[in-house]
Specification:
The complex is a heterodimer of chains A (about 220) and B (about 500).
Chain A lengths: L1 H5 L1 H19 L1 H10 L5 H21 L14 H23 L8 H11 L2 H13 L7 H27 L3 H46 L1
Helix pairs in contact in A: 2-3, 2-4, 3-8, 4-5, 4-6, 4-7, 5-6, 5-9, 6-8, 7-8, 8-9
Chain B lengths: L1 H25 L6 E4 L5 E4 L3 E7 L15 E5 L2 E6 L4 E7 L5 E7 L14 E6 L5 E5 L4 E5 L5 E5 L15 E6 L5 E5 L6 E4 L5 E5 L8 H9 L2 H6 L10 E4 L5 E4 L5 H6 L5 E4 L33 E6 L5 E5 L4 E5 L5 E6 L11 E7 L2 E6 L4 E7 L1 H14 L3 H14 L4 H13 L3 H10 L3 H18 L1 H30 L4 H8 L1
Antiparallel strand pairs in B: 1-2, 1-22, 3-25, 4-5, 5-6, 6-7, 8-9, 9-10, 10-11, 12-13, 13-14, 14-15, 16-17, 17-18, 19-20, 20-21, 21-22, 23-24, 24-25
Classes of the chains: A mainly alpha (about 220), B alpha+beta (about 500).
């Protein structure tokens, strides 16, 4: 591992795979097919894109003009804010993999994660210049910001759909079906988590009250 | 061992002090005057008004105490009080800041009319000519008398197809405009304000509140049986509670008792500013609609939104609404932004039991309490006067003076959004765009920030036009130049005459 870091090829491979994300944004079908089948993508690049996405999202809070994003700083928890992207993404990856693996999906968990991260590329790509741009516009020109911002999200969503189709080698209809099913899977995961933590909390509370009772009587 | 006990003791002592001190902080009372900031958080504020005095009938040397007084009217330095329960009207003259003398008390009118005794007068209005209009509720009429109380004419039940001819006319609140027209709110008439021409003829209803009605209501009505439908609340416009005519002739009408959801969605307006057509032209550019308190917890036995029972409008277009639910006064500026909120229910000075009417004389406020039978006189504090002067100076075009006043306001209350925006607007007028932008950004004023930024950007571009052109040209020319050079280089490299040498070198 350490030895690999010292080799120049590792970095060339990293840069090449990162650049490949740009190719994926404009050639989604071809790009995402090659991503796994031709081993053009790397986890390092996927992690970088995810990190950039989260970073830009946090940076937007501070550096977007207040015209577009007014932040109630008292109510911001940076970890929750990061989790608001990372957690749904994790759920989507797990939920999607869990479902597709039962229905002939060819993608492995890691590949689903990698493709999902690659599909996020438009977000840092568009939102960062947009963040800078926001400081040079007035309310009259806010439509530009709104439209471009919305397009970046739409673009990422389309890439996500394309990516999943290519990773799992699904046709269009089956792919859409499993995208929707993945959303339901996410909801099931949330439900189970809530149930789990609710039960744990109750269980803990039971033993705490038991311990308190014992302490009162001693 | 001793040491351990000592340290435990010290720790316990510290913990007790910490707990009590933090409890002290927790129990800290909110200030009497408060304000809502951009986020809708309550911000304590210095008092804008203080109670100068609370007057009862005996303070004016009158034998009979007020009984359920309902109406208040100010003309010049005259204060008229409709002592509804005693069927009389008390006219007071203000002789000093705190002193009043009784000008006259009358319970009947003179002249050519069958009924001369007033019966439960609920409101009074005085025209420029000195004619007095009295909403004589118990006698089912609005009566017009001259300044010596001689009967001139009266206004009766509206003659209209919507009003049953045998119903009893119960005028409650009246205003008159400069042309002598009378606008009246009458109990059980909810088509809007009854408008009478100067000659006494009824000329129609104006400014009915729009009926709120949604699809779900419609479906329920369709499904319900006849009996159920009758028991449902009928979709009728909310009746107005009170009206006030400002110095420009616009009628401010308040309708309390609105539905919470309707207020939140903006379907209902607690305050409406009516033009001649009866359309609502109230400006609501504030972050929150004009409906008093933003949050209505159920503390202290009061629930639901603020119930505006009266409104008064200063000459600087600031209007003060009286909330009879929690006994509070809400001041809004001409943009619908909160200027101040203060008051409460209680027996102390500055608190009310059942506030019924509000009026102003100059910058002073009178609040009539129907249950306490008292009049509270509020006078602006230094803070209040500064706010007013800042707003008035700005309206008159003295932007620098206005900015200075706002600066003083900001020094007294750093949480006062209007001060920052006021300073910003003053700077904007003085063409100090960059500074103005800072103030607007602090209080999230998008519109004004954009105005300032637009100018700042324009000036910046004009100042840096040469550099801009050079940069733009560079952006286009440098890549073009590089491309050209590369092409030339490529031509040279691949040219036939050099080929032998090239291949020779490579070999």
């Amino acid at each position: 591992m350490i030895a690999a870091l010292k080799k120049k090829e590792t970095y060339q491979e990293y840069i090449r795979s990162l650049k490949f994300a740009l190719y994926c944004t404009t050639h989604p079908l071809d790009g995402f097919w090659d991503l796994t089948h031709e081993r053009r993508g790397t986890y390092a690049a996927a992690n970088t894109i995810l990190f950039l996405t989260l970073l830009i999202r946090v940076m937007k809070l501070r550096y977007t003009s207040f015209i577009f994003l007014t932040v109630y700083w008292e109510g911001i928890n940076i970890f929750l804010y990061v989790a608001s992207v990372a957690f749904p993404l994790a759920m989507f990856v797990i939920g999607n993999w869990g479902l597709t693996t039962l229905f002939d999906g060819k993608g492995r968990l890691g590949q689903v994660y990698m493709a999902s991260c690659y599909a996020l590329t438009p977000y840092p790509l568009v939102q960062f210049p947009l963040m800078v741009f926001s400081n040079f516009v007035t309310v009259d020109e806010q439509e530009f910001y709104m439209v471009i911002s919305a397009l970046s999200l739409l673009w990422a969503a389309l890439l996500m759909i394309a990516a999943m189709g290519q990773i799992h080698e699904f046709g269009a209809g089956k792919n859409m079906l499993f995208m929707v099913a993945s959303l339901f899977a996410m909801m099931v995961i949330v439900f189970i988590l809530l149930l789990f933590f609710g039960m744990i909390a109750q269980g803990v509370a039971y033993f705490i009250s038991l311990a308190k009772e014992v302490m009162f009587r001693l | 061992m001793k040491k351990i006990i000592k340290s435990i003791g010290a720790f316990a002592f510290g913990a007790v002090i910490f707990a009590t001190s933090s409890m002290g902080v927790m129990a800290a009372e909110r200030s009497y005057t408060y304000n809502y900031d951009y986020w809708g958080d309550v911000q304590d504020s210095p008092d804008a008004y203080t109670v100068t005095n609370v007057y009862t009938a005996s303070s004016f040397g009158m034998d009979v105490n007020f009984k359920n007084p309902q109406g208040l009217f100010v003309k010049g330095n005259m204060l008229y009080i409709c002592d509804t329960g005693n069927n009389r009207i008390v006219q007071l003259e203000r002789t000093g800041t705190e002193t009043f003398t009784v000008a006259r008390i009358f319970d009947s009118i003179k002249g050519d009319t069958d009924v001369t005794a007033l019966a439960g007068p609920t409101d009074i209005a005085v025209s420029e000519e000195g004619d007095i209009f009295i909403s004589d509720n118990g006698n089912a009429r609005i009566v017009k008398v001259d300044s010596d109380l001689n009967y001139l004419m009266q206004f009766n039940l509206p003659v209209d197809s919507n009003v049953s001819a045998d119903s009893i006319f119960q005028p409650s609140k009246i205003v008159i405009d400069t042309a002598g027209r009378v606008y009246c709110i009458a109990t059980s008439i909810n088509q809007g304000l009854c408008k009478y021409e100067a000659d006494g003829t009824f000329s129609g209803f104006v400014g009915a509140t729009p009926v709120t009605f949604d699809f779900i209501d419609f479906v329920w009505k369709k499904l319900a049986t006849q009996e159920q439908r009758q028991r449902m609340t009928s979709f009728v416009p909310t009746a107005y509670d009170n009206i006030y005519i400002d110095h420009e002739g616009f009628i401010y009408a308040c309708a309390g008792g609105q539905d919470e959801d309707a207020l939140d969605t903006g379907a209902a307006d607690a305050i409406r500013k009516l033009n001649l057509m009866g359309n609502d032209i109230l400006v609501e550019n504030g972050e929150y609609p004009v409906y008093g308190d933003l949050y209505w917890g159920e503390g202290g036995g009061y629930e639901g939104p603020s119930y505006f029972t009266d409104v008064t409008v200063f000459e600087n277009d600031i209007y003060v609404c009286l909330d009879k639910n929690r006994g509070r006064l809400f001041g809004y500026d001409d943009q619908g932004k909160t200027v101040f909120c203060f008051g409460g229910n209680g027996n102390m000075d500055g608190y009310f039991r059942q506030p019924a009417a509000i009026e102003h004389m100059g910058h002073d406020l009178f609040v009539l309490d129907a249950l306490d039978c008292s009049i509270t006189l509020f006078t602006p504090t230094e803070f209040g006067e500064l706010v007013y002067s800042a707003i008035e100076e700005f309206d008159e075009g003295n932007y620098v003076v206005s900015g200075e006043s706002w600066n003083k306001v900001m020094e007294m209350d750093g949480n006062y959004d209007l001060a920052y925006i006021g300073i910003g607007r003053s700077l904007l007028r003085q063409k100090q765009y960059k500074d103005a932008m800072e103030y607007f950004e602090l209080k999230y004023d998008r519109e004004n920030y954009s105005k300032a930024y637009k100018q700042y950007r324009k000036v910046w571009v004009e100042d840096h036009i040469v550099i801009l052109v050079i940069v733009i040209l560079a952006i286009f020319l440098i890549p073009m130049g590089i491309g050209k050079i590369r092409r030339v280089k490529y031509e040279i490299d691949t040219a036939d005459i050099f080929e032998n040498r090239m291949t020779g070198r490579s070999l």
